[in-house]
Specification:
Elements lengths: L1 H33 L3 H19 L1 H7 L2 H8 L11 H18 L6 H30 L2 H10 L2 H24 L5
Helix pairs in contact: 1-2, 1-4, 2-3, 2-5, 2-8, 5-6, 6-7, 6-8
Length: 182
């Protein structure tokens, strides 16, 4: 009887993870394909990155972090001139998750995790800015490389920060909705 109960719980957990994985994967494909405004897409994708980390774990979140940039490039949201940056944008998404995971405290007050979001966003945007300066200056003319470096700095900081804050709010709501009833 006890073994049967554990098998049932395990099946529910696996179904939840599978359902969430499909849900997040779908959104990571659909959002960049349908929403062609970086200041909308960026925060949504960054929120989904954090939510996938919190609900699916690091490994699945890292895998999912590879999807949005590829879809954005394929659908024209990411300019073709940024194609050489694609692997570094993927790495920056993983860096964002690593920094967030390192300092996130599930039971902490919102302010502490807000600082975690800021730190993760800063790390992501600093990495992208430095890489874009190093790589793009060698590949492109000065005005274009400067514009790309600018795109990889404060807009990334803004979208990662807004997305992280959105994720914190959504995660609290999800925890309240799915908390065990007593």
């Amino acid at each position: 009887m006890i073994k049967k109960s554990f098998i049932g719980v395990e099946a529910i957990i696996q179904n939840r993870e599978l359902s969430l994985s499909i849900f997040f994967s779908s959104l990571f494909f659909l959002i960049p394909a349908l929403v062609h405004q970086q200041f909308l897409t960026g925060p949504i994708i960054n929120a989904l990155l954090i939510l996938s980390l919190l609900n699916l774990g690091r490994d699945k979140a890292f895998f999912l972090a590879l999807i949005p940039s590829s879809v954005a490039l394929a659908n024209g949201l990411l300019p073709l001139a940024l194609a050489p940056m694609l692997p570094f944008i993927m790495i920056s998404n993983c860096l964002y998750l690593i920094i967030f995971a390192k300092f996130y405290q599930p039971k902490a007050v919102f302010g502490k995790n807000f600082l975690t979001v800021l730190l993760a966003a800063f790390g992501k945007s600093l990495f992208l800015f430095l890489i874009s300066k190093l790589i793009m200056e060698g590949l492109l003319t000065a005005p274009l490389s400067t514009r790309i470096a600018s795109m990889m700095s404060w807009p990334q900081m803004w979208t990662a920060t807004v997305g992280g804050i959105l994720a914190l709010f959504l995660q609290k709501k999800l925890e309240k909705i799915y908390a065990p009833k007593r």
